[in-house]
Write a structure and sequence with these properties.
Layout lengths: L1 H27 L5 E5 L6 H14 L6 E5 L6 H8 L7 E5 L1 H8 L10 E17 L7 H10 L1 E6 L4 H13 L2 E6 L3 H9 L5 E5 H9 L3 E6 L24 E9 L4 H15 L2 H9 L3 E5 L1 H22 L1
Parallel strand pairs: 1-2, 1-3, 5-6, 5-7
Antiparallel strand pairs: 3-9, 4-7, 4-8, 4-9, 4-10
Organism: Planococcus plakortidis
InterPro entries: BUG, Bug_dom1
Family: Belongs to the UPF0065 (bug) family.
Length: 315
């Protein structure tokens, strides 16, 4: 009995020591740089905006954020890697609605609830862009073309572009297919080279190619025209019930201490109110859309229900 009591006391001592070490780690967090996994290749909208968050978020944090690009399989490779990282606050990742689509189309078993939400930081309006090789100058001409020909869209088959293309193709009542690319940057390169006819893009990723004369913006998925692109009509004003937007946020591995999540969220919230960050985000054609951990969790839950229903309709 005495031996058993001694063992129990030693075990309790180890537990207490472990709890103290864990508490100290949280209290002293962050003690080194934090890796931010962007599950897409460099050059696309997600990468551009992620680097802005890393730069400006780091200005309101005691350590730097280091971007790690880990593309593959519709943005799921990097996020699956994140689920295997230690839940110690030194690994975070970027997600958007594409993960939800990948989950509900059985590309990956992980979903938004495989992580701890930190914050939403931006939202990007989506635009229909077409190759200049088509010789099309308006949405009306695009619809006419699509009724007589098969429009070759480019995008991530395992992600949100699949949903947008299906939504748009059905609304416009055109003939279409989707050529698969690993991320928006690849699809835009293909569009600029005339290898596909159209893509759903964001301003930050495609505007330089529009200015260079490789492609055109035909219509935008907002309810009203935007100041940045006053000559680009909305689908709504053209008589189509189509709106498209993407929200980019940040998550940590499941089980990350709430105190660490709060420290990260505070840094991101301060960055979201920083005029320098706001200007930088707007300069790439995006808007700040901050949501803290709980609000962002509720947003993801809502989007997950919507996307689940849309995917079921597509099958």
């Amino acid at each position: 009995m005495a031996l058993a009591t001694g063992v129990s006391a030693a075990a309790l001592g180890l537990v207490a020591c472990g709890e103290e070490d864990s508490g100290a780690a949280v209290e002293n967090y962050p003690e080194r740089e934090v890796e931010m996994i962007i599950p897409w290749a460099p050059g696309g909208g997600s990468d551009i905006e992620g680097r802005l968050v890393a730069e400006h978020g780091g200005n309101h944090f005691d350590q730097s954020f280091v971007v790690i690009n880990s593309p593959g399989v519709g943005g799921t490779v990097g996020l699956e890697e994140l689920t295997e990282r230690e839940a110690d606050g030194y690994s975070i990742g970027q997600i958007h609605e594409g993960l939800l689509v990948a989950h509900h189309t059985d590309i990956t078993s992980i979903n938004y609830d495989s992580f701890e939400p930190i914050a939403s930081m931006s939202a990007s309006d989506q635009i229909l862009a077409v190759s200049n090789d088509l010789g099309i100058d308006s949405l009306e001409e695009f619809v006419e073309y699509g009724k007589e020909n098969e429009v070759r869209f480019g995008g991530t088959v395992a992600g949100i572009p699949r949903v947008w293309v299906e939504q748009l193709g059905r609304a416009l009542e055109i003939n279409y297919n989707l050529v698969g690319y690993e991320g928006l940057s690849e699809a835009i390169q293909a569009l600029a080279g005339g290898h596909i006819d159209a893509a759903i893009v964001d301003y930050s990723s495609a505007n330089e190619f529009v200015e260079a004369g490789h492609m055109k913006f035909l219509a935008i998925g907002t309810s009203e025209r935007i100041e940045r692109l006053p000559d680009v009509p909305t689908f709504v004003e053209s008589g189509y019930d189509v709106t498209m937007s993407i929200n980019r946020g940040y998550v940590a591995p499941e089980g990350t201490d709430p105190a660490i999540i709060e420290k990260l969220a505070t840094a991101f919230e301060e960055a979201s109110n920083d005029p320098a960050y706001i200007e930088a985000v707007q300069n790439v054609g995006t808007e700040v859309d901050f949501m803290g951990p709980e609000e962002y969790r509720a947003h993801l839950e809502e989007q997950d229900e919507i996307i689940s229903e849309i995917v079921q309709d597509l099958e």
